[in-house]
Specification:
- The complex is a heterodimer of chains A (111) and B (262).
- Chain A is of the alpha+beta class and 111 residues long.
- Chain A has two domains: 32 residues, no CATH class; 61 residues, Cytochrome C Oxidase, Chain F.
- Helices cover 17% and strands 30% of the residues of chain A.
- Chain A has three helices and seven strands.
- In chain B, helix 6 packs antiparallel against helix 7.
- Chain B starts with 16 loop residues before the first helix and ends with a helix.
- Chains A and B meet through helix 3 of A and helix 5 of B.
- Chain B: Pfam families: COX3.
């Protein structure tokens, strides 16, 4: 009991104070995996931020990561456009947007 | 379609609490009518019990989801923050309505109350006695709750515990003093528009102080059980925001109703 009460005791000047639990120790589940990914340098562990389009040809389509067999995506065709073109992308079925850019689903492991 | 939940959002599990909450407030309101018309407490007490049990279990489940299941990712945290901000804004509007009623009645007093404010034969509280002490208490608990937050962020468990305890103590002290004022008041809620506006505004403020104290007490218990870390302690932040809101409302109350309205 005495040893437990001394858990995380630190010295600040001449006073002793108890510390809170280490954040990484306290975290669990998906929140912990998200933080570990951020600490490892990955600022988008769930792959939900927008991606800048690459060449987007049929031979080199824009690869969209997804851990599901289908994903809803949208294409901002040109900078001056005020609307987005939405489409479903399915595993193994590359698709072309009306503006000419190709997209393909790329499987990734879930976090 | 194969579904893996590779997203940071929290899709909550099935829960009975929204339904029991609805039943609880319905029972509360119907019970209030039964109390007013038939002078019978039974239904309203049942309504209170159901509502309080729902609130306890619902918030307990939220703490479990965040602390023990790790469901509160960054976006979920942001959503909770927005939720608390919008709730406090709705409460601000709730108090605006009582201040509107007060200023409507006091800026142009009716002939029926003597064309004066305070109305004739109303002896208001001296703003420089207990109300001033209450103001000092509230400003002090704003300081102690900020101390608690900084201690949390600086990873200091002991000082967080001490400052949080002090904050709760000051909250209780305010409630006790207001209760004494209410008992000793020379006027009642039935005493003209003065009594109505005074007790509606200060009464609802008092309820908010009690709720804030309870919220901080919950944070204190969670802190003792090591739920908070120096980076993630939104429950405490929400309580601190609510506490500051209650403090600001009192300052408006003190200046307009106690001081200017004297």
């Amino acid at each position: 009991m005495l040893l437990k009460s001394l858990y995380g005791v630190s010295r600040f000047g001449v006073r002793f104070y108890r510390k809170l639990i280490d954040p990484l120790d306290l975290l669990t589940g998906i929140e912990k995996r998200e933080l570990l990914a951020h600490l490892a340098g990955d600022c988008d562990p769930f792959r939900i931020l927008s991606i800048k389009k690459g060449p987007g040809t049929r031979e080199r389509p824009n690869l969209i990561p997804s851990s599901n067999s289908s994903r809803l995506i949208c294409c901002h065709c040109t900078e001056s456009d005020n609307h987005l073109k939405f489409m479903w992308l399915h595993q193994g079925d590359p698709k072309r947007c009306g503006c000419g850019y190709w997209f393909e689903l790329c499987p990734i492991a879930p976090l | 379609m194969k579904m893996n939940n590779n997203h940071p959002f929290h899709l909550v599990d099935y829960s009975p609490w929204p339904f029991t909450g609805a039943i609880g407030v319905l029972t509360l309101m119907t019970g209030m009518i039964k109390w007013f018309h038939n002078f019978n407490f039974n239904l309203i007490i049942m309504g209170y019990i159901i509502t309080l049990l729902t609130a306890y279990q619902w918030w307990r489940d939220i703490s479990r989801e965040g602390t023990y299941q790790g469901k509160h990712t960054i976006v979920v945290n942001k959503g909770l923050r927005w939720g608390m901000i919008l709730f406090i804004i709705s409460e601000i509007f709730f108090f605006i309505s009582f201040f509107w009623a007060f200023f409507h009645s006091s800026l142009s007093p009716n002939i029926e109350i003597g064309s004066m404010w305070p109305p004739s034969s109303i002896t208001p509280f001296n703003p420089f006695q207990i109300p001033l002490l209450n103001t000092i208490i509230l400003i002090s608990y704003g300081v102690t709750v900020t101390w608690a937050h900084h201690s949390l962020m600086e990873n200091n468990f002991s000082q967080t515990k001490q400052s949080l305890f002090l904050t709760i103590l000051l909250g209780f002290y305010f409630t006790i003093l207001q209760a004494y004022e209410y008992i000793e008041a020379p006027f009642t809620i039935a005493d003209s528009i003065y009594g109505s506006t005074f007790f509606m505004a200060t009464g609802f403020h008092g309820i908010h102080v009690m709720i804030g104290t309870l919220f901080l007490l919950t944070c204190y218990i969670r802190h003792l059980n090591n739920h908070f870390s120096k980076n993630h302690h939104f429950g405490f932040e929400a309580a601190a925001w609510y506490w500051h809101f209650v403090d600001v409302v009192w300052l408006f109350l003190y200046i307009s109703i106690y001081w200017w309205g004297n």
